[in-house]
Write a sequence for this structure.
């Protein structure tokens, strides 16, 4: 990435997702007005991917309670997502939208396309209700992610968004002390 995606506004897209037994249209407009996670993974019917998607499914209820919608995205089609959902116990528990991006438009919009393979890197993006990217994390293909750490990052992003002038230090958890940057703190931490 030559330019940071942080604080950029999501680009327009239109795609089809497999969601709760149906094919549904999803656009960037669906991400506005609430917190969203766009969770890219390389491909259906693979190895690390189902462990990540299953972990996200295990945390989905908590994320929903936090006002967060999750969208998983791969360059597979929505038909492939349906077939995977029907054939895997792990994937069958997913109730968040699984977006198909066979043209790679969304994957390229977020800068995670592996052009020579037509696959996405493991990219996780947290988007605020205004459509701005607040967290961006990209992993190589062999490195799985943790949904519990993502939950903590979203909690910190939501806290900072609603508490002007405060920031969350490393390992911050809800209820813990935050910082209010000022000249008085310089050299004291």
């Amino acid at each position: 990435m030559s330019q940071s995606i942080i604080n950029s506004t999501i680009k327009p897209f239109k795609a089809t997702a497999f969601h709760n037994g149906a094919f549904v249209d999803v656009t960037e407009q669906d991400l506005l007005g609430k917190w969203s996670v766009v969770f890219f993974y390389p491909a259906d019917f693979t190895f690390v991917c189902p462990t990540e998607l299953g972990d996200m499914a295990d945390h989905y209820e908590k994320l929903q309670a936090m006002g967060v919608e999750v969208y998983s995205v791969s360059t597979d089609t929505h038909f492939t997502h349906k077939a995977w959902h029907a054939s895997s116990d792990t994937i069958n528990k997913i109730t968040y939208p699984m977006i198909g991006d066979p043209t790679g438009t969304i994957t390229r919009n977020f800068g995670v396309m592996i052009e020579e393979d037509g696959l996405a890197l493991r990219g996780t993006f947290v988007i605020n209700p205004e459509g701005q990217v607040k967290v961006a994390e990209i992993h190589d293909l062999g490195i799985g992610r943790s949904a519990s750490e993502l939950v903590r990052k979203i909690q910190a992003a939501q806290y900072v968004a609603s508490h002007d002038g405060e920031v969350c230090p490393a390992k911050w958890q809800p209820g813990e002390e935050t910082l209010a940057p000022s000249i008085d703190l310089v050299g004291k931490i």
Remarks:
- The mean pLDDT is 96.
- The chain is about 30% helix and 25% strand.
- Residues 156 and 172 are 7 Å apart (CA to CA).
